């Protein structure tokens, strides 16, 4: 059991680190957005790189923040019925939904994201939403990494839920 707890702690630490890194992309998002708006409106000098940078920074915030949100149970949920259930029933519902909905979808998305990332590295792919054409591979790799971290955090939560249902106490 000590080994399982240690693995869960490592996964939790990775999610915390991902959240810490992801929050700095929010700062980048604000700085780039401000710079672009000021240069465009006050100096009539729009940038060719701001749009792609904003899109990539927003995506990185979302993807690196996903495992952090999952760890802290901060993701969006409609609690009309769920909140009135007992902790054990909530855990059972979480297990069922994770195994039937979450993991199949996320595993497919991870496989596609890895393929997408490899294709971008091998083909030296660039993003073509603007005339800047930044390389796509680093962003697509972070996309896959964010999905992997979220799946790992979901696995950690699944282990905790199964333990709670079986033993009636929290694993941590």
Summarize the structure.
With 172 residues, the protein is mostly helical.
DSSP strand content: under 5%
Order of helices and strands: HHHHH
Rg on CA atoms, Å: 20 Å
Q: Helical proportion? A: over 70%
For the record, the count of structural domains works out to 1
Average pLDDT for all residues: 93
- Sheet/helix structural class: mainly alpha
* Low confidence ranges: none
Shape: elongated
* Topology, number of strands: 0
The helix tally amounts to 5
User: Major sheet: size, sense and barrel closure?
Assistant: none
CA-to-CA gap between the ends? 11 Å
Chain-wise SSE layout:
Blueprint: H1 2-43, H2 50-71, H3 79-82, H4 87-122, H5 137-167
Helix pairs in contact: 1-2, 1-5, 2-5, 4-5
Question: What descriptors fit this protein?
Answer:
172 residues; mainly alpha; 78% helix; elongated
Structure explained in plain terms:
- The chain is an all-alpha fold and 172 residues long.
- The chain has five helices and no strands.
- It has helices at residues 2-43, 50-71, 79-82, 87-122, 137-167.
- The longest helix has 42 residues, at 2-43.
- The chain is elongated and about 65 Å long.
- The N and C termini lie close together (11 Å).
């Amino acid at each position: 059991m000590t080994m399982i707890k240690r693995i869960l702690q490592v996964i939790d630490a990775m999610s915390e680190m991902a959240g810490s890194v992801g929050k700095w992309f929010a700062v980048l998002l604000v700085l780039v957005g401000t710079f672009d708006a000021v240069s465009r409106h006050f100096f009539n000098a729009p940038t060719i790189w701001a749009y792609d940078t904003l899109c990539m920074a927003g995506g990185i915030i979302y993807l690196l923040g996903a495992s952090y949100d999952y760890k802290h149970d901060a993701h969006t949920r409609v609690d009309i019925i769920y909140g009135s259930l007992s902790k054990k029933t909530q855990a059972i519902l979480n297990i069922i939904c994770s195994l039937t909905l979450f993991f199949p979808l996320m595993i497919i998305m991870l496989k596609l994201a890895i393929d997408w990332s490899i294709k971008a590295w091998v083909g030296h792919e660039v993003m073509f939403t603007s005339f800047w054409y930044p390389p796509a591979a680093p962003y697509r790799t972070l996309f896959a990494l964010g999905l992997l971290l979220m799946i790992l955090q979901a696995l950690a939560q699944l282990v905790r839920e199964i333990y709670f249902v079986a033993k009636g106490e929290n694993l941590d």
